[in-house]
Amino acid sequence: MPPMGYELMYTAFGGPGRWYGPVYFPLDASSEAGRPRFRIHGLLGGTGYQLRLAARSIVGSGTAYEFSVRTLDSTRPGPVRIKEHFYGIYPYSQVVQWETPLNGGLPIIGYRIRIRPVHLLSSETFNPAQAGADPIVVGAGPWHQFAPQYNNPYINYYYLTNLDPDQVYQVVVEAENERGFSLDGIDLNQYGYLNRTPSDSPRPIHYSDVHTSTTKVISVSDLVPIWSVFKTPSADLLGRPPRIFGSAPRIQEASFLALGFTMYAVLFSAVI
Predict the structure, then answer these.
(1) Which of 22, 31, 148, 263 is deepest in the core (most CB within 10 A)?
(2) CATH for 82-231, options being 1.20.1250.20, 3.40.50.2300, 1.10.150.240, 2.60.40.10
(3) Is a pLDDT exceeding 80 seen at residue 156?
(4) DSSP 3-state of 90
(5) pTM of the full predicted structure?
C-alpha cells in the first residue's frame, strides 16, 4: 500500500525512558528544497534525543528508522513577531497581538511590552514591506513598560489603554526565559529584522539586505521585525470616556447625568 505520511517518536537520553508520540507529518515533510521540514517543538536545549521515524499507510506503520540528535545549548527566546495593525480603530487604546516565539530551549516565563510615542521621518514607512524602506524614528517620548500577568502559556495579546489620539506609537514585545529577554542588547532606535531562531548574539538585518546575498541562507519568512509602529485615529470633541479612563472633568459627568435624568422624565411623562 502507498504511504500516507510519516510518524515520529522520541525520547530523551537520561530521562525516565518514556517515548513521546507518535507525531504525524504529511507525506511531503522532507528536507528537499521547497518542502517543510520535520520540526518538533518543546524540546530542551543541550539535551540528547533518540528518535524513531516510520512511514505509515492505511494498514499500519513500517519498520522504524532509529537515529539520535543533540539539541543546541539553551539561549534566550527568539524574537516575538507582532501581528501588525498599522492603523488603530480607537483613539485611546490598542490591542497588541503577537505569535508565540521559539523558547530557546527553556520554558517562557513571561513577556515584556514597551511602548513610546514617536515621530517618523516618513509616514509611508508604517508598512516597510510596502514602502520598500525601514521606518526611521526622528523624535520619541519616554518608554512605558508593561508586564502582563503570566498565568497562561498561550497568552498572545495585551490591551494598551490611555493612549493619545492621532499619535504614532512604537511597540516592542519580548519573551523571557531563564537566560533573559528576546532583545537584550539590541538597539531599539534602529529598525531591522532578526532570525526567528533563538541566539545569544543575534545580528539585526536591515530591509535593504533582506533580498541580497547576506540572507541567502535565511528564509525571508524566518525574519522577524524588531519592533512595530501603529497610529491611533483622531478623536471627537467629547474627550476621553470617563468610565474607562477617569480623566474627564467632573462637570462633564454631571451634565451627562442631568441629560439622562431629563430624558427619563420626559419618557416617563409620555407614558403616563
Answers:
(1) 22
(2) 2.60.40.10
(3) yes
(4) coil
(5) 0.69
